[in-house]
């Protein structure tokens, strides 16, 4: 453990400062496909009983009309965050008519590309913009890739904690710039060590054979309907998942907020020849929002993002540029198919320990090829992380994954102990020990457990995920929401539908002008 980390932990461990660690905020976003009883993608519209996907704060859709996204509020207690996520699941399951929430990150058998429904958000300018953006994604990446689902974990530390560290270390930067720089430092360390999350929580070592649509691949055949890699942890996060040659040249390495925002500004304002050749419209119909490398900043798919809550009508990059980084969004987590919510408290408590370690540990700039090594370690772990003796690159040295993982977990133990001291109990230390058990025995990892289940039952990936989906539905429906909680969700759904109607009634001008103004909001900054 570094001297800097030791000093920072000692400072935060003082009685006057310890309560700051209990003020970190957590939020979870969980994506999940709606499927029919056979595990086929649901082709039905977003259920009206769930409210408006455009305006509901908690239940929306991502790419496809069938790809639900559940969004919790923030809480200082991850257990409360998970409780809210569970209530959202229970309400939704009660409103699905002979449909289920798919239990895995990778989809089951999908219909033809042209039959995968893109999410609709109504007739307002904002709703149409969201739809056209998704049409652009289909054009650029294909619809099949948009049916992958994951867990996003949002995490922030209280501003008073950053103020304490800034004062103690005599940093001359103003509060906003210091906080942003420290979050960017957290992200650099996340890039260094996130291969560990792939090993510990990767849960997609196999996929339905039709997912690749005849593309060339290096996967092996597990059965007639399933492809896999024997040592893989997360095919979702491998180069079989979200990939695109245009984005391949985009490598923001998070050495400071300015370089990160500049790279995104360039990407959303620079035409890309292949997209320019297609154009934005054909026969009067919009095909994509623009022909730039990225249509909008959120099109850049990274394993973690610096974020700032946006004001109404404000774009994410505008918020970052105006007010700096407020929290981070971890985006590389697979859905655990053995868990009804796809994530549990043990994982959340470990993520808190991991992210606080990344925030407090020394974080030098990514130099001399380290950015590339971070990416290589991540992808190597995704495709063969459980391979015995697997070697990763730590600096210029080659080191065995298990050895490095053990060293990192040992380094994190004082962080876990301090969090437990602040919150009470032993939850963080126990979560850390649960991860060490996976390092010592790879068969305990979710990816190994998935493959073991497929082999033991002679199941395809689809049959396994369908069975888990049905089991989770039974679990969630077995304990209905309390009457007042059910009524609250019903009210939220009705209010969201009314809110969408109000937005549609208030629109002025034509859609083309609306899109032009939306583009200009960032282009003016870029230029």
Automatic annotation (TrEMBL):
GO terms for cellular component: cytosol. It is an enzyme of class 6 (ligase). One of its GO terms (molecular function) is ATP binding. Keywords: ATP-binding, Glutathione biosynthesis, Ligase, Nucleotide-binding. InterPro entries: Gln_synth/guanido_kin_cat_dom, Glu_cys_ligase, Glut_cys_ligase. Its EC number is 6.3.2.2. It catalyses: L-cysteine + L-glutamate + ATP = gamma-L-glutamyl-L-cysteine + ADP + phosphate + H(+). One of its GO terms (biological process) is glutathione biosynthetic process. Residues 10-379 form the Glutamate--cysteine ligase domain. Transmembrane segments: none annotated. Pathway: Sulfur metabolism; glutathione biosynthesis; glutathione from L-cysteine and L-glutamate: step 1/2. PANTHER family: GLUTAMATE--CYSTEINE LIGASE. Belongs to the glutamate--cysteine ligase type 1 family. Type 1 subfamily. This is Glutamate--cysteine ligase. The gene is gshA.
């Amino acid at each position: 453990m570094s001297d800097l980390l030791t000093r920072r932990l000692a400072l935060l461990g003082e009685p006057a400062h310890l309560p700051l660690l209990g003020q970190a905020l957590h939020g979870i976003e969980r994506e999940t496909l709606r499927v029919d009883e056979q595990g086929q993608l649901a082709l039905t519209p977003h259920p009206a009983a769930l409210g408006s996907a455009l305006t509901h704060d908690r239940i929306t859709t991502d790419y496809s009309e069938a790809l639900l996204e559940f969004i919790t509020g923030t809480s200082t207690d991850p257990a409360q965050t998970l409780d809210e996520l569970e209530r959202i699941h229970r309400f939704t399951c009660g409103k699905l008519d002979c449909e289920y929430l798919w239990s895995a990150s990778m989809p089951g058998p999908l219909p033809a590309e042209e039959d995968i429904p893109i999410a609709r958000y109504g007739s307002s300018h904002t709703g149409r913009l969201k739809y056209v953006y998704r049409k652009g994604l289909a054009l650029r990446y294909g619809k099949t890739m948009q049916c992958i689902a994951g867990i996003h974990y949002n995490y922030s530390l209280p501003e008073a904690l950053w103020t304490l560290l800034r004062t103690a270390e005599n940093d001359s930067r103003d509060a906003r710039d210091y906080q942003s720089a420290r979050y960017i430092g957290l992200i650099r360390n996340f890039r260094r060590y996130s291969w560990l999350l792939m090993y510990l929580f990767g849960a997609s070592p196999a996929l339905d054979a039709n997912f690749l649509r005849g593309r060339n691949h290096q996967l092996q055949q597990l059965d007639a309907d399933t492809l896999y890699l024997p040592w893989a942890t997360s095919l979702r996060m491998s180069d079989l998942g979200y990939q695109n040659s245009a984005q391949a040249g985009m490598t923001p390495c998070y050495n400071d907020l300015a370089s990160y925002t500049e790279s995104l500004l360039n990407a959303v304002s620079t035409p890309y020849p292949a997209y320019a050749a297609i154009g934005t419209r054909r026969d009067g119909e919009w095909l994509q929002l623009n022909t730039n490398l990225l249509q909008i900043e959120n099109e850049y798919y990274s394993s973690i993002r610096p974020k700032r809550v946006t004001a109404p009508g404000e774009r994410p990059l505008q918020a970052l540029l105006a007010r700096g980084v407020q929290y981070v969004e971890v985006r590389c987590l697979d859905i655990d198919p053995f868990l009804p919510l796809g994530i549990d408290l043990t994982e959340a408590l470990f993520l808190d320990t991991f992210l606080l370690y990344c925030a407090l540990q020394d974080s030098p700039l990514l130099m001399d090829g380290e950015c590339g090594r971070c990416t290589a370690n991540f992808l190597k772990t995704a495709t063969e992380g459980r391979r015995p003796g697997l070697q990763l690159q730590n600096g210029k040295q080659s080191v065995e994954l298990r050895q490095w993982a053990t060293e990192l977990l040992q380094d994190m133990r004082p962080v876990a102990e301090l969090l437990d001291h602040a919150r009470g109990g032993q939850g963080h230390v126990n979560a850390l020990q649960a991860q060490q058990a996976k390092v010592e025995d790879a068969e305990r990892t979710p990816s190994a457990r998935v493959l073991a289940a497929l082999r033991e039952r002679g199941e395809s990936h689809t049959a396994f995920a369908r069975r888990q989906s049905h089991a989770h539905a039974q679990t969630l429906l077995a304990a209905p929401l309390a009457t007042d909680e059910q009524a609250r969700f019903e009210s939220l759904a009705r209010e969201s539908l009314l809110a969408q109607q109000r937005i549609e009634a208030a629109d002025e001008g034509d859609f083309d002008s609306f899109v032009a103004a939306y583009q200009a909001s960032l282009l003016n900054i870029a230029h």
